[in-house]
Each structure stands twice: as structure tokens, then as C-alpha cells.
Amino acid sequence: MPQTMSPGALPPPATPPPPTISTPSSPYPSTQSLTRDRIESQGYRVQRLQQAPSGDWKADVTRDPTPTRPQGTPSRIIIHPDGSQTVEY
User: Fold this and answer.
1) Cβ count near 49 (within 10 Å)
2) pLDDT per residue of the chain (89 residues) written in tens, 0 to 9
3) Of 27, 35, 28, 37, nearest in space to 55 by CA
4) Hey, is 49 helix, strand or coil?
5) In angstroms, how far is the first alpha carbon of the chain from the final one?
6) Which of 31, 58, 76, 77 can bridge 88 by disulfide, Cβ–Cβ 3.0-4.6 Å?
């Protein structure tokens, strides 16, 4: 027993080994995946990505058509204080 310890004291706990840190192969995400994510977040589907010699990305994309109102659906209905209605198409 070391001289600095009292007779009833427990020995100091064992020090744990240092944690292992796994490092990715690159500290930054791929610019291709960032470009794809940015384009897809705007509602497009990316078919193909190509990197230009300047470093920019060119994407071949498609997008679902914007839904339109069915024919005959009013764009605006105004209800007046007297209860009458005005319908605009």
C-alpha cells in the first residue's frame, strides 16, 4: 500500500484506454452528393451529374409538372356582406 493512502481507502481506479476515433477518408462531404441533395430538395429528380472541367456540376434533371386547377374550378369566390357571391374563373 502506498504511504499516502489511509488503511481503509480504496486504490485509485484504473485509467481507461483512450477512445478510438475513426476518421473518414475525407474531412469534407463529396461535392457531388451535396449538389445532388440541393437539387433534389428543390423538387427535381436528378438523372445524371457530370463535372465540368471548371469544377462546376451539370445535372440532367426532370420535374413533375406543377399541378393546375381542373377546368371549371373558380380561382376566387367573393361573398359580399348582403350574402351574394361573385365567382371568378
Assistant:
1) 16
2) 556 656 667 777 777 777 666 655 667 677 788 888 888 888 788 888 888 888 888 888 888 766 666 677 778 888 999 989 888 87
3) 35
4) strand
5) 95
6) 76
Record the cell numbers describing residue 41, joined without a space.
430538395
Q: Which residue has the cell 481507502?
A: 9
Q: Is 68 helix (H, G, I), strand (E, B) or coil?
A: coil
Q: Pick from 38, 63, 35, 62: which is nearest to 49 by CA?
A: 35
Cell triple for 1: 500500500
Partners of 51 in the β-ladder: 57
The number of C-alpha atoms within 13 Å of 88 and in the hemisphere containing its C-beta is 5
Q: Are strands 44-51 and 57-63 parallel, antiparallel or unpaired?
A: antiparallel
- How big is the CA angle at 65 (ends 63 and 69), to the nearest 5 degrees? 155
Beta strands in 2-89 (DSSP E): 44-51, 57-63, 76-79, 85-88
